[in-house]
């Protein structure tokens, strides 16, 4: 399915419908055994949403203008689930966590400026290295969520 608000099979044009499809029915729609309580696919969701909104398939109301300035902001107290699982929700697998981080860093290096406000694994939460590396690859900045 297309990932991104207000698009994708099973989704409708209401925020409630999107929450139902992508969050509540996550196990049915994406095949994971547990999509709640700690499964955050922020990198995947951002990448797929940006790709969709830049595609010819995006309707005008969802398309990013060619000259628009776009920024992505990640905020999390844990590592991205794709990094932890070495697997994206679409089934793409990676040999190790660093390969996942490298893949997303390569995407964000050529896409919107990104910022990460995430845990460094110190005083709270997990080390969210994937979000930090994606932001730095884009030329953006990072901040410690727990500071």
**How would you state the average pLDDT, rounded?**
80
Spans of at least 5 consecutive residues with low confidence: 1-13
Question: DSSP strand (E) fraction?
Answer: 5-15%
Q: What count of helical segments does DSSP give?
A: 6
Radius of gyration from CA coordinates: 15 Å
- How do the SSEs run, as a string of H and E? HHHEHHEHE
Number of strands: 3
Largest sheet properties: 3 strands, parallel
Gap between N and C termini: 37 Å
The rough form would be described as: globular
Structure description:
- This protein has 147 residues and is an alpha/beta fold.
- 37% of the residues lie in helices and 10% in strands.
- It contains six helices and three strands.
- A three-stranded parallel sheet has the order 1-2-3, covered by helices on one side.
- α5 packs parallel to α6.
- It is globular and about 45 Å long.
